[in-house]
Amino acid sequence: xxxxxxxxxxxxxxxxxxxxxxxxxxxxxxxxxxxxxxxxxxxxxxxxxxxxxxxxxxxxxxxxxxxxxxxxxxxxxxxxxxxxxxxxxxxxxxxxxxxxxxxxxxxxxxxxxxxxxxxxxxxxxxxxxxxxxxxxxxxxxxxxxxxxxxxxxxxxxxx
Length: 159
Ligand SMILES: [Cu+2]
Prior knowledge:
- This protein has two helices and twelve strands; from the N terminus they run H-H-E-E-E-E-E-E-E-E-E-E-E-E.
- With about 160 residues, the chain is of the alpha+beta class.
- It folds into two domains: about 1-50; about 55-155, Immunoglobulin-like.
- The longest helix is centred in the N-terminal third of the chain and has 29 residues, at about 25-55.
- Bound molecules: copper (II) ion.
- Copper (II) ion binds near residues 138 and 141.
- Copper (II) ion binds near residues 98, 136 and 138.
């Protein structure tokens, strides 16, 4: 009878040994895989959303949707912006190559023309809904593709 008990104990120890040896590394591995995969995806998504939807900054005078837009020969980045009706919008226009401005006729928004490495800021209230084109008014830059689209979304009716 004692022999049987010893054998059972040995079998249990062996089973426990297998369990710890083979089971433990697996959860660790999958956890590491998840950690390295998920943040990559979410940061890419967040990056895209940030550039198109701006960043809300409130320095005391209410929320301002702020976009940093880079311009060069002959494009804007980002080339799409999305805001809501009534938003106060600030565009920080950074010229990374050439001689450019940022112009958005429908809202009377226009920076001065600046050189490489300079930046200019313009602010406006998005009081019309729809899609509008912003562009560089220097020479034929607009025809060369130095333009983008801002969409002003209608706010849902409050009930
Ligand atoms: Cu230009």
